[in-house]
Every structure is written in structure tokens, then in C-alpha cells.
Protein: Alpha-amylase
Amino acid sequence: MNGTMMQYFHWFYSSEGELWRQLEQEAPGLREAGITGLWLPPAYKGNQGPTGMGYATYDLFDLGEFDQKGSVRTRWGNKDEFMRAVAVAKAQGIEVYEDVVFNHKQGADETEDVTAVAVNPQNRNDPPPGQGREQGIRAWTHFTFPGRGDQYSAMKWHWYHFDAVDYDDNTKSAGTIWRLKDKSFDNPVGRDLGNYDYLMACDTDMENEEVIAEFTHWGQWFTEQTDIDGFRIDAAKHTRFTFFNGWLDHLRGITRKPLFTVGEYHDYDLGNLQRYISETGGRISLFDFPLQNKFHLASRHGGGFPMSQILDGTLTQANPTLSVPFVENHDTQPGRGSFAHPVEPWFKPLAYALILLRQEGYPCIFHPDYYGAEYTGQDNNHVTLFSHKFLLDRFLDARINHAYGPQYDWFDHDNVIGWTRLGDNEHPKAMAVVMSDGPEGNKWMNVERPDALFHDITGHIGDAVRCNADGWGDFGCRGGSVSVWVQE
Structure:
């Protein structure tokens, strides 16, 4: 069966602790629809406690169990609810992937006096012009976890477990990146700004033996606690690439599970994604940000984007076995300020057809694109994301029953493109897909089904198409739309 992942949250999802209970209720329906994997948000306690997303990592071992950072529960619920939701999803045959942030920690319990050097924000390898001398700062780097104590882990974090911070409590000033005494930024990481190890808060030293041991211990503890099926690695661009080689090899060895893992390498340059794949030895899939960028641009051009080139320069085309194509996520969605890189609603059905009905990649559906969402964005504007569930359910059905066998492309027009899937022994019915980002159009395509009848499961076109004696058919679509023709 063709697998399909869903990102089961978004940035503006309710902070009332409802997500785990909602998942427990909806898991059976998701599996019936064709969802085989769920990417869940960070289940552990972040610096903002019950309101934060969890990406500002405070305590990896607090899954909503201890009274820390203003509450017992996380934004998504408490530990018992999380464990039940995971168990219900897995009982339905859905794999569950945990979102984890190793790059940084935030919300320390105590300060420490340390020596540091200011870093040039435009080239992290150099000090700011006219500076470069060591000086004393007071940093929030001592994590003691008073609510949890030593349960699950006795490690307390100190300044020497980090490479850099961005706040000096002596001067109450934020914004300067301070590299700590005798520390250097990790490598290999992204090459932006000289070295892109530093992202925010307390930047973990991924070469420190105690840090490596703690993250390895957490991975083993978490997989044993939850029977999780894999991970989504946040800030992969900023976290020492090669750390994950040993970490994943160890966890896969002790769990005897493949532990599917996908990294968030937020970059539109295919070469940078390929470098990451090389450094990690193909152990980690990546979200296809270059393809998402193509979707964003095409949706903004209103018919002026060359659809014949929609897959060029994408990970899905270059390395399909390690690609996770997606249309939108919690960073690119509207209302996310400078992160926002949305796909316009009219183009989303075309984009989802491209990732769900082709043979390349392990596609991911965004929660609001299935369920819809209304919220106030970071710019205080009201945002409505429309549900595409009607078409997504039909695409998923076609993915389950028809998207198999040889694939032939007709990417030979700036607006109207199409492809066929010819089926296999277990799924013998053929399929043809046609879409246009401009006027309505047709594609004369061979599905190798002489005299067979095809109908459009989207309902956009009511008349059936009958192939000729050689298996060719004239398959069409409406303007700015997609039609999915399946064999009757």
C-alpha cells in the first residue's frame, strides 16, 4: 500500500490541551481514509509550558507529567493522553513520528557566570568589527528541572554543554550571539552566515560527550516508553549532521525497527539538501522545500508559471526515495510572519495531486488542508484556511487503489500537464491525471487499455472518456484545476 503521512497540527492550533484527545478520536477515520503515518508535534515540555509549541526545548523527559513551566500538561495535553493517542493510532496501523529539537534548549532554571566572545552575526566565524576580546557575561545555562528532579535522567545542564547563547543577564541585553569560552561552532552544518550552527537560545554542543550520551539515553528511553516509529528532526540545517549517524544506528539497532526519520532542512537549494543526505549516509529523508517553493511560486503566478518544469530542481525528482514532498507546513502557513511561504488555495488541489498520485516520495498532508482552520496570525490578521478534504479523500482513494505500476509523463506544455499510471498485478486499473494552472485543456495520453472507459473522480468533468483501440484517450481538465481519471 502506498504510504501517506499527515502533519497532525499547525502553528496556531488550540493551546487548550486538546490535541492528544482529538487524535485518539480521529485515528480510526484517518486510517480508513488512507493515512499511514502521523507526524506529531514535540510531546515534551518547552519553555512556554502550556502555551508553547515545544520547539523552545526545556525538558525532553517531561511529556506532560511534571509541574514545570507553569503547568503539568503541554500545549497538546498530558502524558497519559499522549500515550493513549499513540497507542490508538498504532493499533489502527498508523505509524507515529515524534518531532524532536536537539539544536537548542531554552528556559534554564539558574544563571552561570561565563566567559564569552561576541560573534559577527553576518559571519559567525568572526567577531564583530572592532571586537573579539573575551568578556564575562551571566548566562541562563543551568538546567536543574526542579519539577522532575532525577526521574528518568539525573543530568543537569551547565554552560559547558553549550556552544553559544544570545542573552547576557548582567546587561539584560538580547540579540548578541556569545560564543562561550574555548567553544567552537559545530560542523558540518549549513554554510549560511559562515556557519549556521547557531539558531537561538542555548545552542547545544553536539560534540560534547555528555550531551551525546544524554541525547542517546533520551532516544532509547523515549522509544521504549512510547514504541514510536520514527522522528522528525527540527532545525536539521543547524544541528551537526553527522551526530545523527551514530544516534540513529544505535536506536535502530536496539529497537530492531527502521525508525523512519525525516529532517527539516529549510532550504530551497537542492544542492544543500543533497549535501545533507551525503553527510548522513542516506539515513534521513528530507522535506522537499524546493518543491514547496515551486508550488508557492506557481500559485502566485496565476497561469504564468511553466508547469512543464514544476519538478525540475526538486528533491522529489533528484532523490525520490529520500524525499518527503509537502504543500504547506506550520512554518510556511499564512500568518507566520517572515517564515510564511504559503500556497494559494486554488493551486492546492494541483499540488496535492502532484505529490499524492505519482510514484516519487513519501507525501505529507497538512492538518489544516484536510480539516480547515481559522486563527489570528502573528501579524494580528484573521486567517482562514479552507478544507480540501473532499478532493483529498478522493486523491487518497486513488493513491490506495490506482497509483501503481509504470508512470509516463506528458510534461510538454507551459500550462497543461499530465501523467498516467498503468497499474500492477494487484491493482490492475489504470489512471490518468491532467491539470492546468491556466485555461482548460486536454492531453492525448496512452493508458494501454483499449476501449476502456474512464471517469473523473473529482467530479469536475461529468462525461466519461473512452479509449480507442490502441489504448489512447483524450483526457481533459477545467481551467486552474485538476482531473483524475480512473478506469471503470
